[in-house]
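sry for the spam today, last one i promise. struct tokens for design, 268 residues
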């Protein structure tokens, strides 16, 4: 599925359905309410105006709907799709070590083990190459190759399978080499995702510490004095606004880096 800058809720749901269950109402509510709550609490703790908190929460909710939910869903879709392709590459290679098996025989077996959208792709591939001429077989393999063209190593693997199907010859050593490359990319992706999880934890920790410090300062001054002397004063407005701008900038920078999925574009 091609990448897009914007997704409708139906398109986000389609990404979920490709490898799992559709979005549930409670998931959507949670994905929108949590950003609203965080932004509202932060804003209220600085300015103590409920209407300003609602505005800030509304902006955060809209951003979550327009950006966070689609980005996270697409990222999960791409990770799962890659896992399916990696499993396919490993299973096919293992089965083709038996010289008595044909590519079509192997396809039938591994398709039963596949899941979601990729399983549908394999079923379509099988149907297209059965009793087809060489040109039709080449076209069938090209369809699946084009769909996952971002995964260059997988593309090479499909090319080898196409050659084996059409010409009846292939090098098992070449397939094993391609499999090793794909497994290496999977390992890099696993390390990459683990690193992102740690970065997400650190971000949440820093934001939490910031809120705790605001509360500590409030209680040290006293609630009424904090509101009267600082929160609703000109200096308070300027200082708190700058702080919110910095926090927002930090969050946007974090999100941009967090959803940066260049490593998902699998290259040799």
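last one done:
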């Amino acid at each position: 599925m091609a990448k897009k800058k914007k997704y409708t809720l139906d398109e986000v749901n389609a990404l979920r359905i490709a490898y799992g269950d559709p979005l549930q109402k409670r998931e959507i509510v949670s994905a929108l309410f949590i950003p609203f709550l965080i932004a509202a609490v932060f804003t209220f703790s600085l300015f103590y105006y409920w209407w300003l908190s609602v505005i800030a929460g509304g902006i955060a909710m809209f951003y979550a709907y327009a950006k966070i939910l689609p980005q996270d869903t697409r990222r999960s879709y791409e990770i799962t799709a890659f896992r399916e392709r990696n499993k396919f590459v490993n299973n096919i290679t293992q089965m083709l070590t038996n010289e008595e098996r044909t590519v079509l025989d192997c396809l039938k077996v591994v398709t039963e083990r596949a899941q979601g959208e990729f399983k549908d792709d394999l079923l379509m591939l099988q149907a297209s190459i059965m009793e087809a001429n060489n040109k039709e077989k080449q076209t069938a393999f090209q369809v699946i190759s084009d769909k996952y063209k971002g995964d260059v190593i997988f593309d090479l693997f499909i090319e080898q399978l196409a050659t084996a199907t059409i010409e009846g010859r292939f090098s098992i050593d070449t397939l094993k080499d391609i499999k090793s490359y794909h497994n290496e990319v999977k390992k890099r992706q696993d390390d990459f995702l683990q690193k992102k999880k740690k970065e997400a934890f650190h971000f949440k920790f820093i934001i939490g510490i910031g809120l705790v410090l605001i509360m500590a300062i409030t209680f040290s001054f006293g609630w009424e004095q904090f509101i009267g002397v600082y929160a609703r004063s000109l200096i308070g407005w300027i200082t708190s606004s700058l702080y919110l701008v910095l926090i927002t900038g930090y969050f946007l920078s974090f999100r941009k880096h967090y959803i940066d999925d260049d490593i998902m574009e699998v290259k040799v």
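Residues 81-184 form one domain. ok im logging off now
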